[in-house]
Design brief:
It comes from Laspinema olomoucense D3b. It holds the Pfam family HypD. The protein has 18 helices and eleven strands. It has about 375 residues and is an alpha/beta fold. The protein has a domain of about 150 residues: Rossmann fold (3-Layer(aba) Sandwich). Strands 4-3-5-6-11-10 form a six-stranded mixed sheet, with helices on both faces. A five-stranded parallel sheet has the order 2-1-7-8-9. Helix 2 runs parallel beside helix 18. The longest helix is centred in the middle third of the chain and has 17 residues.
């Protein structure tokens, strides 16, 4: 397939790795901000193709992983109501809350349904007028337009038994939080190409010079990522700090304007808790209180008195900030596995711990350049 074979070509990847080695004269640390890129890096051994003095670290690019445990516990509480049909993307069902997960509620009789689009929930609501249908809206800017469209259509069609528990988060504030941290390691970023497909990359043009970090909008295939690393190292070696677009086949500078318009119509920017990290100012989306409060599940259900607590054995916060890697955790692969996860990064399809568990359980033999 075009853009698959081309961007997974082994010879091209090796040539990119050699080009990176030729221009690298000092140690550099680069963070990819997307869980999909993390899985590609670990699966294809991209980090092992690079010179020893280039370090790749994994950021909070998994939307499932950063969903705060308090919202997971709220979702479990709502899904436990007998009058509720709770709808979610499949990767949220195994994310651990304080005491259990959504799959446990489903196993004990809760009506929990996996959907592939938030808009699917509107048909479920129309077919079940005596039930409350709730969708768990999770994700970065990539999935938020579909969530917004579901709420917008519900309002237009006057579907009164539909609501949403929202946990959408925004990438640029998280990048600034990482760059502002006292333990900052990051010297350059690979920005998530799918987020930029929606939002463009003008927001990054203020971050790059402010923190003196190159930001490269990057795709998801091995050659994409290696090209992104090359552009990043080239800037670092020359003392530049600009935004570049490696993923030009999908990303335009201004992004997708219709998608941005529906986001502005339905959502407002709010502070948001990030699991394992804490609150980041202006980093979340929630339904506009003035126009769409009736679709906010937090307004429909009594969620007071829920006590949430992270597992003391899980270091997901340090992993999501790039301070630690999965193998640094004593519980990794022992007390924490995909079947019995202590934290979201082990169970999510985009989580760093899940990637290492799946692809790095056995040491791969890969020659460095």
């Amino acid at each position: 397939m075009k853009f698959v074979d081309e961007y997974r070509n082994a010879t091209t990847a090796q040539d990119c790795a050699k080009a990176i080695a030729r221009i690298t004269t000092r140690p550099w640390t680069i963070m990819e901000i997307c869980g999909g890129q993390t899985h590609a890096i670990v699966k294809f051994g991209i980090d092992e193709l690079l010179p020893d003095n280039i370090t790749l670290i994994h950021g909070p690019g998994c939307p499932v992983c950063v969903t705060p445990i308090a919202l997971i516990d709220q979702a479990i509480a709502i899904a436990s109501h007998p009058e509720v049909i709770f709808c979610s993307f499949g990767d949220m069902l195994r994310v651990p809350g304080t005491a259990q997960d959504l799959l446990s509620i489903k196993a004990t009789g809760g009506d929990i349904r996996i959907v592939y689009s938030p808009v699917d929930c509107l048909k479920i609501a129309q077919e079940n007028p005596n039930k409350q249908v709730v969708f768990f809206g999770v994700g970065f800017e990539t999935t938020a337009p579909a969530t917004a469209m579901a709420v917008y259509q519900a309002a237009q069609q006057n579907i009164s038994n539909f609501s949403m528990l929202v946990s959408h988060v925004l990438v640029p504030p998280a990048m600034e939080a990482i760059l502002s941290a006292p333990h900052r390691k990051v010297q350059g970023f690979l920005a998530a190409g799918h987020v930029c497909t929606i939002m463009g990359y003008t927001e990054y043009e203020a971050i790059a010079p402010k923190y003196q970090v190159p930001i490269i909008v990057t795709g998801f295939e091995p050659v994409d990522i290696l090209q992104g690393i090359y552009l990043c190292i080239k800037q670092l070696e020359s003392g530049q700090a600009q935004v570049e677009n490696q993923y030009s086949r999908s990303v335009r500078k201004d992004g997708n304007q219709p998608a941005q318009n529906i986001l502005k119509e339905v959502f407002e920017i709010v502070p948001r808790q990030w699991r394992g990290i804490g609150e980041i100012a202006q980093s979340g989306l929630n339904l506009r209180q003035k126009y769409y409060a009736q679709f906010n599940a937090e307004n429909r259900f009594d969620l007071t008195g829920i006590q949430s607590e992270e597992s003391p054995d899980c270091m997901s916060g340090l992993i999501l900030q790039g301070v630690k890697k999965p193998h640094d955790c004593e519980a990794f692969g022992k007390r924490c596995t995909p079947e019995h996860p202590l934290g979201a990064p082990m169970v999510s399809s985009e989580g760093a711990c899940a990637a290492y568990y799946r692809y790095r359980q056995q040491t791969a033999v890969v020659s460095r350049v």
